[in-house]
Amino acid sequence: MLWRLRARIGYAVARRLFHWSWLVKQPRGWRWLEGQFARMANLGDVAAQSFYGHILLFRGQGFGAREEGMRLLRLAAIAGDAKAAYQLGALSLAGDTRQAPDAVDAARWWTLAAAAGHPLAARRLADLYREGGPGLPADAEQAARFVQRARELGL
């Protein structure tokens, strides 16, 4: 129980210090911050999984960091984090060297994000269904549904 409290306090401090660029640029400071983020994410905190997943995906060093970032984003998205689900949809649609672009997978992730209240996911879904994509035929009815959802969410 005490170790969970210590992890939460360390994570809260690290999130505040994350905005201090001089600390982030220091290798020792960055390792400490990363350790706090990783500990909280490993404890199953959805917000920490999303935050650290994004850090690993965009700032991580090497293939393993990217894979771990995607794993953490998947966990957060499945738990209901809209930002993580949106990012996974964008990655699915973009594809990479190991996987071709997949509009069906992108639509699945963006549907989760739109349901969780992410307005840009609803807009991107509307565009995707209007135009179609790799493996996903155009569907005007679905496009109209997500245009309406984007309006409800403020776009």
From TrEMBL:
Coiled coil: none
Regions crossing the membrane: none
Pfam families: Sel1 (PF08238)
Name under which the protein is recorded: Sel1 repeat-containing protein
Source species of the chain: Pseudomonas borbori
Organism lineage: Bacteria, Pseudomonadati, Pseudomonadota, Gammaproteobacteria, Pseudomonadales
